[in-house]
Amino acid sequence: MKESPQKESVAEKTRGYIDAHPSVKDCMAKDLINYSSLARLIMKDLDIKNEEAVMIACRRYAQKLSKKDHEGDILAVLADSRLEVKTKICIITASNDWTVLQRLERIFAKLINQKALMQIIQGAQAITIIADEKLRNDIVNEVGETNVLKVREDLVEITVKSPQKIGETSGVFSYLSSNLSEQGVNMVETVSCYTDTIFIIREKDMIQAYSLLSSLLESAERTLDIGH
């Protein structure tokens, strides 16, 4: 006989709601929240009737969050990060087929002694190839036009190069990408590779994106200097 699933408690529902709203969570960690208003909002959105239980859950979670300087960890990473820009980038989307991967391997062999960019991301439905525009024709010819689904050009790659501690610091990518999207910068592709956080954007957005990311890194550095 199957056991009936345990009903989620008010506290669990409340924590789940807060976790799903990063802006609320961040304000709670900084003690900038009106808990009565937050409790009423949670009750309305989750159809909970017990206001006292929600208030208690909010305050307990806030105490836990206040002990963690999560934003401080993110800023510490960004303060020690640097930007790198590559222009004239293209993205070629190809069919996810083993023959395509074999053909791309031949291109990699040719690039060993060249300082040319080419990155490959294999998804469930397609293979994304990020490369210098000068490699566009070679890649299309090698892969075969029938295997090419889409080609996008006039792109720029902005890389945030961070220290190794980014591997143990959650939220850095989200922090950067949310700031870019809030300012209307459309990210064509995003890639995270070891200590590099890579944003592929349209050429027309390059100045705005670079300026914004530079400001975030400089602000992080200033904030840590003031804290020390």
Give the topology, please:
Layout: H1 10-19, H2 22-29, H3 35-46, H4 51-66, H5 70-79, E1 82-95, H6 98-111, E2 118-122, E3 126-132, H7 136-143, E4 148-161, H8 172-182, E5 187-193, E6 196-202, H9 206-227
Antiparallel strand pairs: 1-3, 1-4, 2-3, 4-6, 5-6
Helix pairs in contact: 1-4, 3-4, 5-9, 6-7
Fold and architecture overview:
This protein is α+β, with helices and mostly antiparallel strands and 228 residues long. The protein has two domains: 10-68; 77-227, VC0802-like (2-Layer Sandwich), CATH 3.30.2130. The chain contains nine helices and six strands, in the order H-H-H-H-H-E-H-E-E-H-E-H-E-E-H. The protein has helices spanning 10-19, 22-29, 35-46, 51-66, 70-79, 98-111, 136-143, 172-182, 206-227; strands at 82-95, 118-122, 126-132, 148-161, 187-193, 196-202. Strands 2-3-1-4-6-5 form a six-stranded antiparallel beta sheet. The longest helix has 22 residues, at 206-227. The N and C termini lie far apart (60 Å). The model is unreliable at 1-5 (pLDDT under 50).
Query: Could you give the order of strands across the largest sheet?
Result: 2-3-1-4-6-5
Distance between the first and last residues' Cα? 60 Å
- What are the segments in which pLDDT stays under 50 over at least 5 consecutive residues? 1-5
Counted up, domains total: 2
Number of helices: 9
Helix content: 40-55%
Number of strands: 6
Order of helices and strands: HHHHHEHEEHEHEEH
Q: Classify the fold: give the CATH topology of the largest domain.
A: VC0802-like
Mean pLDDT: 88
Outline: elongated
Per CATH, the superfamily of the largest domain is VC0802-like
